[in-house]
TrEMBL record:
It comes from Luteibacter sahnii. Its EC number is 2.4.2.17. Feedback inhibited by histidine. Pathway: Amino-acid biosynthesis; L-histidine biosynthesis; L-histidine from 5-phospho-alpha-D-ribose 1-diphosphate: step 1/9. The keyword Amino-acid biosynthesis applies. Residues 54-212 form the ATP phosphoribosyltransferase catalytic domain. This is ATP phosphoribosyltransferase.
Length: 297
């Protein structure tokens, strides 16, 4: 094969992952020449080009060396890995990207109820993910028949082609609309950066590493929150324990209130209302949670 000196990233041409993937790459400083309906987008600053394809084709394109990296759902990547003779080799999940969250779940007709995996014994389950479902069934000691369907899996029970389904769920609205109830989660999924286990040992490998470093910075900033609050000194330990990622806070004295401090801390991950309420009960007040725009240690 002719060698390439530019890095090539595969991503979904149009679908749920397209916009967030484009935004992520833009945040990493990558710019591409606009070509809405083309397969190929030429990168303008860095030597990185894009290939816009169906999400299902992404793992294969990386495995064959047509692309170096890809942005794809973990569900699609894992299913591809399981279809390979040596699932542990070849492709790897290099980073999880925090968007496109969903789960691959088994669902049963609402009126059936669900009281555990054994209930699925001897049943037919429709899915587009035979590899992942097969793995779950084996690990739960269930002997069920897997019916492969490329799409419209959710109507299989009503059509009588299966007793249950195994499909992607996010809000659960599709399940409700089809009178199904979620019974068991097979895997939790989100968009991931996929690549071969060993990056090429040439310029492309160097570009890939540069991109991974930028990506780590972007992910860290996106997932960080700055929290500011005031608290009694004697409540500091309790409050710090409640902060996501248990950061080491910076303390500032409060004029005229020697038993009080202002706490500033960089948290890993978002801070929920529940966590704020817990901190308030522990003695914190005047709490502010701020997004972080850029970070340089
Ligand atoms: P194509 O094959 O044309 O690229 P698609 O129909 O397979 O598109 P989408 O429906 O856009 O793909 O889903 C892409 C990915 O988005 C899924 O593989 C999954 O990882 C993720 N996703 C997040 N939430 C959901 C959901 N509720 N239903 C389906 N996929 C979801
Ligand atoms: Zn697809």
């Amino acid at each position: 094969m002719k060698s390439r000196d530019r890095l090539r990233i595969a991503m979904q041409k149009s679908g749920r992952l397209t916009e967030p993937a484009q935004e992520l790459l833009a945040r990493c400083g990558l710019k591409f020449r606009q070509s809405r309906d083309k397969l190929f987008c030429f990168g303008e600053g860095e030597p990185v080009d894009l290939l816009l394809v169906r999400d299902d084709d992404i793992p294969g394109l990386i495995a064959e060396g047509v692309c170096d990296l890809g942005i794809v759902g973990r569900n699609v990547l894992r299913e591809f890995q399981l279809s390979q003779p040596e699932p542990g080799e070849g492709l790897a999940e290099l980073r999880s990207l925090g968007f496109g969250r969903c789960r691959l779940s088994i669902a049963v007709p609402h009126e059936d109820g669900y009281d555990g995996p054994a209930q699925l014994d001897g049943r037919a389950i429709a899915t587009s993910y035979p590899g992942l479902l097969g793995e779950w069934l084996r690990s739960h000691g269930v002997a069920a028949r897997v019916v492969y369907l490329a799409g419209s899996v959710e109507i299989a029970p009503r059509l009588g082609t299966a007793d249950a389904i195994c499909d992607l769920v996010s809000s659960g609205a599709t399940l409700v609309a089809n009178q199904l109830r979620e019974a068991a989660v097979v895997i939790e999924s989100e968009a991931v950066l996929a690549g071969r286990r060993d990056l090429p040992a040439d310029e492309r490998g160097e570009i890939a590493e540069l991109l991974l470093r930028r990506l780590d910075g972007v992910i860290q900033v996106r997932d960080s929150r700055l929290i500011l609050l005031q608290a009694p000194r004697n409540a500091l330990d309790d409050i710090t324990r409640l902060l996501p990622g248990m950061p080491v806070p910076t303390l500032t004295a409060v004029d005229g209130a020697p038993d009080q401090v202002v706490v500033q801390a960089l948290c890993a991950g978002s801070v929920s209302w529940r966590q704020l309420e817990d901190m308030k009960r522990a003695g914190a007040r005047d709490m502010l949670v701020l997004p972080v725009e850029k970070m340089l240690a």
